[in-house]
Amino acid sequence: MKILFLDQTGQIGGAELSLLDLLKPFRADCLVALFKDGPFKDLLEQHQVSVQILSNRSLSVSKDSSFLQGLSSSFQLLPLIAQTAQLSRRFDLIYANTQKALVIGAMASYLSRRPLIYHLRDIISPDHFSATNRSLIINLANRFASLVIANSQASQAAFVAAGGHQEITKVVYNGFQPELYQYSSANRSELRQQLGLDTQFVVGHFSRISPWKGQHVLIEALQYCSEDVTAILVGDALFGEDQYVNQLHQRINELKLGNRVQTLGFRSDVAELMSASDLIAHTSTSPEPFGRIIVEAMLCRRPVIAAAAGGVVEIVKHGKTGWLSPPEDSRKLAELIMSCRNHPEQSARIANQAQVEVSQRFHIDTIRQQVRYLLQQVLHCKESGQHIPYRLAE
Ligand code: UDP
Ligand code: GLC
User: Fold this and answer.
1) Hey, whose CA ends up nearest to atom 10 of ligand 1?
2) Could you tell me which residue ranges the Glycosyl transferase family domain spans (predicted)?
3) pLDDT at position 66, please?
4) CATH says 3-175+363-383 is which class?
5) Residue 360: exposed, middle, or buried by beta-carbon count in 10 A (0-12, 13-18, 19+)?
6) Contact 151 CB / ligand 2 (< 6 Å)
7) pLDDT digit string (tens) for 305-349?
């Protein structure tokens, strides 16, 4: 099966890491076309995946862009659409991994008559998108996509609530390779020593730095925790959120938490750092479409407290495989952190239970099989001349 994958960014976010995991079985015959250069290109090449950069300019359609801006940018998109359509003629399918990839992919699919798959990794709601962009995504997906793969039931439900056709959607969760998340206690102690945190209770926060990822919620929570509770913030501002970074540092200073918060920037040793933490906090203030870091923390057998919204509630069973905290409630988060710190045996039991569950439920092999099956269905429908959108066989 020859697939042209499209992604709008050269940065390494969850959508890109998920795509890398997913496409490996197809890599002999696939190409990833990126609309921007960046470290994701190098990562794909390290994994022997063919990559092509289609444009070095950033697309000016932003999540909250207005109609007029959108219209003017659509003219800038024409060369990119033509390039993508031309390229797609060498492939059986076009696979759009992000929202802007959908815009380009839809037009290319129309021109080259190649079926379009849209991997929906966003919650299409006012929290995340302007009215113009919600309507653009929904209309393009309804009109041009043969299949919309939603990364959670929450993403699927928001798509349908915004007017998306339910019958073209399927939920496929993100997949993981459990053996990549196993670290010995010797590794753990060494890393804690390097970070100067061997006697602290370490709360790890792993996410790109962005207001909706809610790093501030954890910082606020620290003031209500005992002095030994320390946070490591792992991740970078990938999409120009410098103002938020400054606000975070200002708040850390105001609360005199400089000696209890370490910012480590983007790291490629997330699993090691998670294993070195005592607890992982997820604090998104808007509904998280899926939340890879939650499953990763569970695979590392670390207790997790996560913000109860979006796809997160499909992953975490409160009190059984982790804890759910109301988004933006730093006092409740602090209470849960202290409870986890004060009851290490209970926390370890829950973390063990979570690891067993997610190792099976989100195993990459199962997820790859599900996607392959769906893509075969799409090709089969095309070959047999069935109209699309169509109802996917169960
Ligand atoms: N991540 C990483 N290095 C960092 C911070 C995050 O490799 O410094 C990875 C993290 O392990 C996870 C992904 O980035 O796999 C983030 O995915 P998630 O679904 O949690 O959030 P997104 O950023 O996609 O909204
Ligand atoms: C997006 C979402 C995140 C999800 C990832 C992979 O980046 O924000 O929640 O885990 O895609 O599907």
Assistant:
1) 293
2) 188-355
3) 55
4) alpha beta
5) exposed
6) yes
7) 999 999 999 999 999 999 999 999 999 999 999 999 999 999 999
287 pocket-lining for ligand 2 (C-beta < 6 Å)? no
Domains 3-175+363-383 and 178-361 share a fold: yes
Q: Is the CB of residue 292 below 6 angstroms from any atom belonging to ligand 2?
A: yes
Burial of 195 (0-12, 13-18, 19+ CB in 10 A): middle
The pLDDT tens digits for 130-155 are 999 999 999 999 999 999 999 999 99
Q: Is the CB of 99 under 6 A from ligand 2?
A: no
From the CA of 285, how far away is ligand 2's center (Å)?
A: 14
CATH class, 178-361 region? alpha beta
DSSP 310: B
Residues contacting 327, CB < 8 A, separation 6+: 214, 217, 283, 284, 285, 286, 307, 308, 309
Q: Identify the band that residue 172 occupies on the pLDDT scale cut at 50, 70 and 90.
A: very high
Q: Would you list the domain boundaries of the chain? A: 3-175+363-383, 178-361
The residues that bridge with 281 in the sheet, in sequence order, are: 305
Tell me the C-alpha distance between 294 and 281, whole Å.
8
Q: pLDDT value at position 57?
A: 57
State the Cα angle at 296 between 96 and 206, rounded to 5°. Answer: 85
- Exposed/middle/buried for residue 68 (C-beta within 10 Å: 0-12, 13-18, 19+): exposed
Q: At what angle do helices 215-222 and 330-342 cross, to 10 degrees?
A: 60
Atom 8 of ligand 2: nearest residue by CA position: 289
Total number of residues shown for the chain: 394
Q: Which of 173, 206, 264 to mutate to test the pocket of ligand 1 (most atoms within 8 A of CB)?
A: 206
